[in-house]
TrEMBL record:
Organism: Thalassobacillus cyri
Any GO MF annotation of the entry: glycogen phosphorylase activity
GO CC annotations on file: cytoplasm
Role summary: Phosphorylase is an important allosteric enzyme in carbohydrate metabolism. Enzymes from different sources differ in their regulatory mechanisms and in their natural substrates. However, all known phosphorylases share catalytic and structural properties.
Main enzyme class: transferase
Protein name as annotated: Alpha-1,4 glucan phosphorylase
Length: 812
């Protein structure tokens, strides 16, 4: 790429001049960022082209990962890392008077996702390219990504995310690859002379789906895959003709705007299905554009349709793109003239589906009338799928009306997207072992009993390149110095670190790096928020979306409890602690927003009380995002993973924090169970109800939060502070709703029930942390076992078991 820094400097200066008409002397940091970005994008181009040519020549099977979300964050640092150019570029820039770190800060986060599901998609792309696998992302190029959160008077206020206002240097618009997507209209059928049915779709509205391709650079792999983000453009010709026909020129612009709303913004909710028409439009827009584009690529191979599943895998990231199933049927039947049976066989063999949640309020079900009106042909096909499926069930379970009604895709006036996804695919997976078991034995039991062979587990992972090598370079360096560099390509080899669990030199090195990372975070917090922190204190980190089941409230109540303890006994023996929170609440999720307000209120009280403030600090970091996570995670000592057992499908923040040497304080939920299994009791703090106990309580209704409130004095005193006159409530009714949820509405998420066990674990951490050497050992053991949670392992499992693809020969 660049053989040395001199070559880089020359190319960079030329780029500044040619692209921006600037010299090194006149360029601002933004200029330098843009020039560097487009220089790298161009240099990636050759390998990108070669990768695509290779895929075509070898007729390599292609995986298309359909996802409404790709939470990629910034790309500069990651691309430099994967191209192995970090040092050359950093040194070259330094000679020219620029700091690479500062240029990286100029990049906006591509926040095209809500949380776990979107970030997982981004980690998967990195692993696919790094492993030399032919896997690409299909998503939407939202004009506004995840909202920008500001905290004003302790409350979350949402601002639009203007990420495209600064050029997104990595993308390439490809109008020649655009496809048309149709909405609305009517469908008529007619029979030809051979008795075949044909469907004619008319009076529809048509938009252009224009792809913007982003290269996905593999680490040291010669493979550059594609993240294809679709953007809507009104078909001007069509729009004008329609306006002319209806004599509605006055509203031409309004109409154009309403069409263009489709790719305008990301729905900022990761747990409530809203049933909004625009969201359904977005989903079909992605699905139709993606399917047409994948089919077009397959046709270039000049193979019979029966070969489609051998050459194409269509993966759906949760049910949001489930209409891939009827859309592929539509294309194969209406456009390629295949019969139902053949089209169905191809569809089922090509599509696979991942479930990411068992929360019932998140399960998508679209009103029949809405689907019929907006997507008439897709609705017809879905009805037919349902019809045939129910008939087959009837043969299998004659007379079992109830079972068949429960399994049906269309029922009670709704189209159930999870049912469609299961029926139309050959593989269904959960995202951690416990989650998959819950799917099989509870949530999807009835489907599992019918199609046991389709269900499998793929425990999530994270890319160790971004989350360790990029975010925590000093730690990656220490690991390489200790065990050599093989772990980079084989992260499972991190277990070699176990041989150093008692090596004072390595443990000192590890503690030293953590300390430096904490100082760096503390100084950033001081500069940006003016709060001064003690880098010697335990950095206790709770970062994830704000949701009742994730129980930020449990953490907050516990902080109130420690505050009370210190106030009663200011000389209390405790390791000083800094609690960090980062969390966005869905815009309409009132309860979650109150919890944000509560955390900020606690922060205000604690940080400004001289009696406690050298022992306790609370920091709510606003606008939690990928780039903020990269700042916080390397500095964490304690990783809060305290969801109500059974509710967190997997979690991936738990893996990032573990890989950076934090110890998990967690319930036996999601992937915490697998972390516990690897590191053993001594190196994790588990507490609280098990998933079986929680599910049993839900079933039996046997839990009474009032009883806990009445019998546990600590709980009662703390909870009362929410509404009685206290430093936190100041006597107003701000937190009445939270109080009521705990005491009067039976505490849906078992916060009170788990409080005592949580406090005991926190107390244990308090003791253990003071033993620096043994804490370092626990930390090292966590890092050593984190290799299992590299998304490379996860992707290898998807590749082998679901997609049936293998790495292509590299061509160095
Ligand atoms: C329709 C509204 C909506 C949008 C997104 C409902 C549900 C979702 C996602 C399925 C929520 C999500 O992000 N789930 C998370 O997925 C992660 C990756 O698998 C898991 O690690 C988290 O445990 C899970 O909550």
């Amino acid at each position: 790429m660049f053989s040395d820094k001199e070559e880089f400097k020359q190319a960079f200066s030329q780029k500044l001049e040619a692209k921006l008409g600037k010299t090194v002397e006149t360029a601002t940091e933004v200029d330098a960022y843009r020039a560097l970005g487009s220089l790298l994008r161009e240099r990636i181009g050759k390998k990108w082209l070669e990768t695509n040519q290779r895929y075509e020549q070898e007729k390599e099977k292609q995986v298309y990962y359909f996802s409404m979300e790709f939470l990629i964050g910034r790309l500069m640092g990651n691309n430099l890392l994967n191209m192995q150019l970090v040092d050359v570029v950093a040194e070259g820039l330094k000679d020219l008077g620029f700091d690479l770190g500062e240029l990286e800060e100029e990049e906006s986060d591509a926040g095209l996702g809500n949380g776990g599901l979107g970030r997982l998609a981004a980690c998967f792309l990195d692993s696919l390219a790094s492993l030399g696998l032919a896997g690409h992302g299909y998503g939407i190029r939202y004009k506004y990504g995840m909202f920008d959160q500001q905290i004003i008077d302790g409350n979350q206020i949402e601002f639009p995310d203007l990420w495209l206002s600064r050029e997104f240097v990595w993308e390439v618009r490809r109008p020649e690859e655009a496809v048309e997507v149709r909405f609305g209209g009517h469908v008529s059928s007619s029979e030809d002379e051979d008795g075949n049915l044909h469907f004619d779709h008319y009076d529809y509205e048509q938009v252009q789906a224009v792809p913007y391709d982003v290269p996905v650079v593999g680490y040291n792999s010669d493979t550059v895959n594609t993240l294809r983000l679709w953007s809507v453009e009104a078909n001007l010709d069509d729009t004008i003709k329609k306006a002319a026909r209806l004599n509605e020129f006055g509203n031409f612009l309004g109409h154009k705007r309403s069409l263009e709303a489709i790719s305008e913004f990301l729905y900022p909710d990761d747990s409530h299905e809203e049933g909004k028409r625009l969201r359904l439009k977005q989903e079909y827009f992605l699905v139709s554009a993606g399917v047409q584009s994948a089919v077009r690529a397959f046709e270039q191979l000049d193979l019979p349709w029966s070969a489609f599943p051998e050459k194409v895998a269509l993966h759906i990231n949760d049910t949001h793109p489930a209409m891939v199933i009827p859309e592929l049927m539509r294309v194969l039947m209406d456009e390629k003239q295949l019969g139902w049976k053949e089209a169905w066989k191809i569809t089922q063999a090509s599509v696979s589906y991942t479930n990411h949640t068992t929360l019932s309020e998140a399960l998508e079900a679209w009103p029949v009338d809405m689907v019929r009106q907006l997507l008439p042909r897709i609705f017809m096909i879905t009805e037919e799928i349902n019809e045939r499926f129910c008939q087959s069930l009837w043969k299998k379970y004659p007379g079992e009306f109830d079972r068949i009604a429960e399994l049906a895709i269309i029922a009670d006036g709704q189209v159930k997207m999870a049912h469609l996804s299961i029926v139309g695919s050959h593989s269904i997976n959960g995202v951690a072992r416990l989650h998959t078991e819950i799917l099989k034995l509870r949530e999807m039991k009835i489907f599992y009993d019918t199609f046991p062979e389709r269900f499998n587990n793929k425990t999530n992972g994270i890319t160790h390149r971004r989350w360790l090598m990029h975010a925590n370079k000093p730690l990656a360096g220490l690991i390489t110095d200790t065990i050599g560099e093989d772990w980079i390509n084989e992260p499972a080899q991190l277990t070699d670190l176990l041989a150093y669990r008692d090596d004072a030199g390595v443990l000192d090195g590890l503690n030293h790096i953590k300390q430096k990372n904490k100082e760096k975070l503390a100084s950033w917090v001081y500069q940006t928020k003016g709060i001064s922190l003690d880098p010697q204190s335990i950095f206790d980190v709770h970062i994830k979306r704000l949701h009742g089941y994730k129980r930020q409230l449990l953490n907050a109540l516990h902080i109130m409890h420690i505050y009370n303890k210190v106030k009663m006994d200011p000389s209390l023996d405790m390791a000083p602690r800094t609690f960090f929170f980062g969390a966005k609440a869905a815009q309409g999720y009132h309860y979650a927003k109150k919890i944000i307000k509560l955390i900020n209120t606690i922060a205000d009280v604690v940080n400004n009380d001289p009696v406690v403030s050298d022992k306790l600090k609370v920091v709510f970091l606003e606008n939690y995002s990928v780039s903020l996570a990269e700042r916080i995670i390397p500095a964490a000592n304690v990783s809060e993973q305290i969801s109500t057992a059974s509710k967190e499908a997997s979690g991936t923040g738990n893996m990032k924090l573990m890989m950076n040497g934090a110890l998990t304080l967690g319930t036996m939920d999601g992937a915490n169970v697998e972390i516990h299994e690897l590191v053993g009791d001594d190196n994790i703090y588990t507490f609280g109800l098990s998933s079986e106990e929680v599910l049993e309580y839900y079933r039996s209704g046997g839990y009474s939060s009032k009883q806990v409130y009445e019998t546990d004095e600590v709980v009662r005193l703390t909870v009362d502070q929410l509404i009685h006159y206290s430093p936190f409530s100041k006597g107003d009714t701000e937190f009445q709703e939270i109080y009521d949820s705990l005491v009067h509405h039976n505490d849906e998420f078992f916060v009170l029930k788990d409080f005592a066990a949580y406090a005991a674990s926190q107390q244990q951490i308090n003791f253990d942390y003071q033993e620096k050497q043994s804490w370092g050992k626990k930390s090292l053991i966590n890092i050593a076992h984190a290799g299992k949670f590299s998304s490379d392992r996860t992707i290898q499992e998807y590749a082998a078991d679901i997609w049936r693809i293998a790495p292509v020969n590299t061509f160095k």
